[in-house]
Specification:
Blueprint (H helix, E strand, L loop, with lengths): L11 H19 L22 H19 L11
């Protein structure tokens, strides 16, 4: 398992692009009635038209990378690497 890059390493637009794709797939899986319930217990409320700022995007990005690596899953679009 790798460690998170320091704040400022990635641009906000980089983080937002990955978060958009990963959250969309996360929410798709969370909506499946009987599948993946143990991993995706609830939806992530992330609106791609809202400016959450750098800190929220940084924390969400790092959580989603950790989640994918820890559970050996891929939420699609981008490789979960730091």
């Amino acid at each position: 398992m790798s460690h998170a890059r320091p704040r400022g390493y990635y641009s906000q637009s980089y983080l937002e692009a990955r978060n958009r794709v990963w959250v969309l797939e996360w929410n798709t899986r969370a909506n499946l009635p009987l599948q993946n319930r143990n991993l995706y217990e609830m939806r992530i409320d992330y609106d791609s038209h809202t400016n959450y700022g750098y800190e929220v995007n940084y924390l969400l990005f790092n959580y989603l990378v950790y989640f994918q690596q820890k559970n050996n899953v891929n939420l699609g679009g981008f490789s979960p690497r730091i």
